[in-house]
């Protein structure tokens, strides 16, 4: 979906310095200030207001999807939504979680996927700004070679600056109740963004945001807590035996995240636990575990174990996997007609002799 991340290191070959240049080709209907999208391939004429565009933050060109509330946009709350990863496009949140569309996965004959209205969309009662962040995620890119590298703190600051610039350019949304939300790895980023907003409010920075709160879903928070909780979860759902759980708890002293390499009993217990759960889909243990291998309809490989499924576009209901739905996003978002409709810039990378 996005341009491949270039290396940040300089390259020398045969005494010549090789420099990475980014050549940005912008389609005629793309605009730096955002454009209203009235039609999307696979959906047709939109029955909701969608704006897409880029906001410049330093060397970063951050891509966004903005969907205005389908209820009362003058009073409904305003959300900034970030998806985790890190590095997962906000299109994931838009199409699989809270946006007004979903893929018609049950009636897919091949080719460009069809989109349907999603009746449980949050956009029915809220305006939501979906951001591709950090740079290099989705359709966001950098105009310099050094600009591709990022960190949690850098991404949070860029996201805050993006939000400020976007709201200044769209002042009618400034008075609305503001919430910052996200899922997965955004459990790290969202609070950092909110901290920047709170600091700006305390410093009386104008314009003042009407921040009301933030939310995170299935968030990454603390890796030690997350890792330790997985062992407890596995025991509570009877994925591991009482004996194995007690052995791990005693030998690891309840800490499974930062294990002393010399503690062989703990490592042995954790290895046995990993073996017990290795064939389970960790996001939902009641669903089959699938491998994201290829979206090409001609490539399907099936084994006796669900963990050996090779991802393909769905054809048979009994072979259903959640990743089939994700394959449709890969096909749809990489289609040239879709990118043209979304006003996506075509970013080409060239490595040339200087």
Kindly describe this structure.
The protein is of the alpha/beta class and 354 residues long. The chain has a domain at 11-221 and 334-353: Rossmann fold. It is 28% helix and 24% strand. It contains 8 helices and 15 strands. The strands form 4 sheets. Strands 3, 4, 5, 6, 9, 10, 11 and 12 form an 8-stranded mixed sheet that branches. A 3-stranded antiparallel sheet has the order 1-2-15, with no helix packed on it. Strands 7-8 form a two-stranded antiparallel ribbon. α2 (152-169) crosses α3 (186-202) and α5 runs antiparallel to α6. Pfam families: Peptidase_S10.
Question: Summary?
Answer:
This protein is an alpha/beta fold and 354 residues long. The protein is 28% helix and 24% strand.
Secondary structure elements and their pairing?
Layout: E1 11-13, E2 16-25, E3 35-40, E4 44-57, E5 60-67, E6 78-82, H1 91-98, E7 101-103, E8 115-117, E9 127-131, E10 141-142, H2 152-169, E11 178-183, H3 186-202, E12 211-217, H4 223-236, H5 242-252, H6 264-277, E13 290-291, E14 309-310, H7 322-333, H8 336-341, E15 346-353
Helix pairs in contact: 2-3, 5-6
Family: Belongs to the peptidase S10 family.
Signal peptide: 1-33
Protein name: Serine carboxypeptidase-like 18
């Amino acid at each position: 979906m996005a341009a491949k991340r270039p290396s940040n290191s300089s390259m020398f070959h045969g005494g010549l310095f090789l420099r990475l240049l980014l050549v940005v080709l912008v389609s005629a209907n793309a605009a730096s200030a955002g454009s209203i999208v009235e039609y999307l391939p696979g959906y047709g004429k939109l029955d909701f207001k969608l704006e897409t565009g880029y906001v410049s933050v330093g060397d970063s060109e951050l891509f966004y999807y903005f969907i205005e509330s389908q209820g009362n946009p003058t009073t409904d709350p305003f959300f900034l939504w970030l998806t985790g990863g890190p590095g997962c496009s906000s299109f994931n949140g838009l199409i699989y979680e809270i946006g007004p569309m979903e893929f018609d996965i049950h009636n897919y004959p091949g080719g460009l996927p069809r989109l349907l209205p999603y009746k449980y969309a949050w956009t029915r009662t809220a305006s939501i700004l979906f951001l591709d962040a950090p740079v290099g995620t989705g359709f966001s890119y950098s105009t310099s070679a050094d600009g591709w590298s990022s960190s949690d703190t850098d991404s949070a600051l860029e996201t805050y600056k993006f939000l400020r610039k976007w709201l200044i350019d769209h002042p009618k949304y400034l008075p609305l109740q503001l919430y910052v939300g996200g899922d997965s790895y955004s459990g790290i980023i969202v609070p950092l963004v909110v901290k920047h907003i709170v600091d700006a409010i305390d410093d009386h920075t104008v314009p003042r945001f009407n921040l009301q709160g933030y939310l995170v879903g299935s968030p990454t928070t603390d890796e030690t807590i997350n890792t330790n909780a997985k062992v407890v979860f596995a025991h509570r759902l009877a994925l591991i035996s009482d004996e194995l759980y007690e052995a791990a708890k005693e030998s690891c002293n309840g800490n499974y995240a930062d294990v002393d390499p010399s503690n062989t009993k703990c490592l042995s217990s954790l290895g046995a636990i990993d073996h017990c759960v290795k064939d389970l889909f960790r996001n939902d243990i009641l669903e089959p575990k699938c491998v994201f291998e290829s979206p090409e309809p001609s490539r399907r490989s099936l084994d006796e174990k669900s963990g050996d499924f090779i991802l393909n576009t769905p054809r048979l209901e009994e072979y259903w996997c959640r990743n089939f739905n994700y394959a449709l996003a890969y096909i749809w978002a990489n289609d040239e007609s879709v990118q043209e409709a979304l006003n996506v810039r075509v970013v080409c990378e060239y490595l040339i002799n200087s």
